[in-house]
Write a sequence for this structure.
């Protein structure tokens, strides 16, 4: 069942054209598929190979002749036709039942509308096809459906014809001029309305832009439309890449497994990444929409025009496109400190989610070598670590060098399905660089550890930085070879200013990018006037764990002065993490907790430093999460971690009470809501102040929260206030929750927040979650709802999920099994909540193992869940 990268063979037949005819009916949809194919000279295989899943085959004709049962073989999901001529026209008629499709892969019904999701292997649930990304064809699509129920008929490319069919049905014909792999196919047949606009492209052409939503949501499309226009402009300006169609559509659906999908010309989105107005969406939602709209749009070049040879190459498009959307978001903020805050967020995600993945049973390289179910590899490693790998090219080659590499990549590969190695070659060749060793970032899993040691020689005025690297073993990879690691370094003098850097007589400014390629290397800086404090891995120049024996004094120095904002933040994180780990130990031993003045003073200084952007201050004051603390421990103890972190929050809240209160008052954003970076930063800092104040027993904080809850005119302030009430377990919390529900009952995305806030409250135990599952608004078939309640509880309520009696794990097993019968992809995501089970106490481990075995012991289990739980049990 395991598929290996090394087993790749080219497709036996290539497809030139595909004509699809759909007679859309929720219970019984007829799909007529006419393919023109020819033998692939590059393949030794002579049989035609078509994939199909959950399809009823009605008819099959080859070059006009009906094929009987003896002319083809069906083995599992594969239909094989032997002895076919060089050139064939295949006609395939199949039936499917979209309304029964709860997996939300292929063609399904969402709130009465037809929607598709074909990546990675959903197209085979629509028709028989060589459903692999290296088969690229030209598509023509005819849609027929009841006009009243499905007034809008959309597919990829250009609308070429539409009309009536007489019997209350109508049709639309679409043509996509660009050859594409089947995973980019899409159709929508629905009752929807759109916000649309003509937009001028760089070459003078006009494109029609549309955002399609259900009628009641037309007041929430503007931000997505603005984001789309900014994305188009940005790709023109930064990479010289233009929209290649006359029409670009975004469709929002409430039932979607992932965030969004880059189908050619017809992006389909989870409503979460489209719908926003100040009443219902938070600042984070606004930012998420801009990023995801950008991401899907940027895929048009990095993914669609140049696509993947096979699914092992997924990061070729995903890592690159995440990098592009990150750069886009950074450029939209504009200011250097805004950019830094954006970067800090990326670093936090990486540490919080990707590093644990890389250290767990599902660890895999950015370009995996094998998989059982490809849907399990849409991971933070492929996406976010993949983006870091792309970012390292830019760090090594410079922005201009990176652009040259991109240009060469498109010059060589436009219209092709290629490999990660082809991208690396383009980067190397365009810059005359050897990037052979860099390949290890794609092939070796695990997070490298870089150990640094510095030595100042006063008489020689040199500073020697010794860097060494290692990488822990990961499943299937006991030994690693050295990586090519860019380490950006600065040296701070006693005044806090950067010292000028010189190596081998070369002046390197104030930040030098050192290239660590061996297991150990020395870098000697000359002309260093004083003993410096090193600022290492500036801007997080590589996805590694950096170790250096910093003293408190050095960290405080960096926290106050580092010119690199990411490392300034980092110094603060190190200061808090050290203390949190000690406090956790004390809490576990039942000792008395205390927090030193030095730390509190450092926090006070940042909080009150008005020369710093509020957004940066908020980041600097935010403590590492409970899961990040857990990652630093050999044996994880969720309750002491929680106790320690809560104690620290309460101490900061009490000892900086006056400053927090002043901040709360000074950072208000009166007047009309705006989602610009400055206002977002002010709200974030203000609401962090509220959260700290709310962590103390002071009545005043709760009064403020209640007042903010009642008077807020935007969702950011609303949920911040409600969160403060819930987390303080305030007497007013239940009533506020009820009011919130009543007010937003009709806003599905807000009700998701309502569930999620309760699911993650430390007071919410399994019994409470079970009760919430009985709420009429809960729906096991809706992925957003499942994520907001069940996944939030299992992944983000560590104290209750890891309850000593194992009840959290038993609940997890039950839900994974129930979900698996409906939607394997969602079940599989949830099953990942147990990844780190071997790091807990023996008592908890025993319960966790039992739960894992219960799931693994099910006779009917999807490949998705089976792969995850069996890897968890065996690694
Ligand atoms: N390509 C999409 C994106 O990155 C993700 C779709 C993945 N879907 C899936 N079912 N695996 O935006
Ligand atoms: Zn993507």
């Amino acid at each position: 069942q395991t598929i290996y990268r090394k087993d790749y063979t080219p497709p036996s037949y290539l497809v030139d054209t595909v004509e699809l005819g759909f007679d859309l009916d929720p219970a019984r949809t007829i799909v007529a598929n006419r393919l023109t194919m020819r033998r692939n000279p590059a393949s030794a295989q002579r049989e035609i190979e078509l994939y199909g899943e959950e399809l009823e085959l009605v008819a099959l004709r080859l070059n006009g002749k009906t094929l009987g049962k003896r002319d083809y073989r069906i083995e599992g999901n594969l239909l094989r036709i032997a002895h076919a001529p060089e050139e064939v026209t295949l006609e395939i008629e199949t039936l499917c039942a979209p309304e029964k499709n709860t997996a939300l892969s292929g063609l399904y019904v969402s709130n009465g509308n037809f929607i598709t999701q074909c990546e990675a292997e959903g197209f085979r649930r629509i028709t028989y096809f060589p459903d692999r990304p290296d088969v690229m064809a030209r598509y023509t699509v005819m849609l027929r459906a009841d006009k009243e129920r499905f007034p809008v008929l959309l597919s990829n490319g250009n609308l070429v014809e539409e009309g009536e069919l007489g019997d209350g049905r109508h049709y639309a014909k679409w043509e996509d001029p660009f050859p594409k792999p089947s995973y980019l196919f899409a159709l929508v047949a629905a009752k929807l309305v759109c916000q649309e606009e003509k937009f001028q492209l760089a070459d003078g052409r006009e494109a029609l832009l549309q955002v399609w939503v259900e009628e009641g949501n037309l007041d929430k499309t503007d931000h997505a439309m603005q984001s789309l226009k900014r994305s188009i402009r940005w790709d023109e300006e930064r990479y010289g890449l233009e929209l290649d169609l006359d029409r670009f559509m975004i469709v929002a659906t409430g039932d979607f497994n992932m965030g969004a999908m880059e189908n050619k010309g017809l992006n389909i989105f989870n409503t979460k990444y489209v719908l926003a107005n100040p009443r219902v969406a938070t600042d984070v939602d606004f930012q998420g929409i801009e990023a995801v709209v950008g991401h899907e749009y940027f895929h048009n070049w990095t993914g669609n025009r140049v696509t993947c040879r096979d699914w092992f190459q997924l990061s070729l498009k995903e890592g690159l496109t995440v990098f592009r959307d990150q750069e886009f978001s950074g450029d939209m903020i504009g200011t250097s400190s805004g950019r830094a805050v954006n970067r800090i967020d990326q670093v936090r995600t990486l540490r919080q989610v990707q590093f644990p993945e890389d250290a767990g049973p599902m660890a895999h390289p950015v370009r995996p070598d094998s998989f059982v179910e490809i849907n399990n590899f849409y991971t933070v490693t492929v996406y976010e670590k993949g983006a870091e790998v792309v970012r390292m090219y830019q760090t090594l080659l410079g922005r201009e060098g990176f652009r040259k590499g991109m240009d060469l990549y498109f010059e060589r590969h436009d219209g092709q399905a290629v490999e990660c190695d082809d991208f690396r070659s383009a980067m190397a060749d365009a810059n005359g660089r050897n990037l052979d060793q860099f390949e290890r970032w794609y092939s070796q899993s695990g997070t490298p550890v870089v150990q640094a040691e510095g030595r100042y020689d006063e008489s020689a005025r040199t500073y020697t930085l010794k860097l060494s690297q290692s990488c822990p073993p990961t499943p299937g990879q006991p030994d690693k070879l050295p990586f090519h690691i860019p380490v950006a370094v600065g040296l701070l003098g006693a005044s806090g200013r950067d010292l000028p850097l010189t190596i081998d007589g070369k002046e390197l400014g104030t930040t030098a990018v050192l290239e660590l390629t061996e297991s150990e290397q020395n870098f000697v800086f000359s002309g260093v006037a004083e003993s410096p404090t090193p600022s290492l891995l500036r801007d997080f120049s590589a996805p590694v764990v950096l170790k250096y024996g910093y003293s408190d004094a050095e960290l405080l120095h960096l926290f106050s002065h580092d010119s690199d904002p990411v490392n300034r933040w980092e110094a603060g994180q190190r200061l808090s993490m050290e203390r949190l780990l000690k406090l956790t130990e004390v809490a576990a031993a039942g000792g008395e907790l205390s927090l030193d003045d030095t730390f509190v003073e450092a926090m006070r200084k940042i909080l009150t430093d008005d020369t710093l952007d509020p957004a940066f201050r908020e980041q600097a004051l935010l403590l590492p999460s409970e899961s990040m603390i857990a990652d630093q421990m050999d044996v994880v103890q969720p309750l002491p971690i929680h106790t320690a972190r809560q104690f620290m929050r309460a101490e900061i809240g009490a000892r900086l009470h006056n400053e927090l209160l002043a901040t709360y008052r000074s950072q208000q954003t009166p007047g009309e809501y705006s989602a610009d970076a400055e206002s977002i930063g002010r709200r974030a800092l203000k609401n962090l102040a509220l959260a700290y104040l709310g962590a103390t027993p002071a009545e005043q904080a709760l009064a403020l929260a209640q007042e903010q809850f009642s008077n807020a005119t935007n969702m950011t302030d609303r949920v911040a206030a409600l969160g403060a009430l819930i987390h303080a377990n305030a007497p007013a919390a239940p009533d506020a929750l009820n009011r919130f529900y009543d007010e937003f009952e009709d806003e599905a995305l807000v009700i998701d927040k309502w569930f999620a806030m309760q699911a993650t409250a430390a007071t919410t135990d399994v019994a409470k979650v079970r009760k919430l599952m009985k709420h009429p608004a809960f729906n096991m078939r809706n992925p957003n709802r499942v994520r907001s309640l069940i996944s939030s509880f299992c992944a983000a309520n560590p104290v209750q999920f890891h309850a000593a009696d194992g009840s959290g794990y038993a609940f997890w097993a039950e839900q994974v099994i129930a979900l698996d019968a409906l939607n394997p992809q969602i079940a599989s995501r949830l099953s990942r909540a147990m990844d780190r089970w071997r790091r807990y106490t023996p008592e908890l481990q025993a319960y966790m193992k039992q739960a894992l075995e219960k799931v693994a012991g099910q006779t009917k289990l999807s490949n998705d869940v089976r792969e995850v739980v069996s890897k968890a049990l065996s690694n």
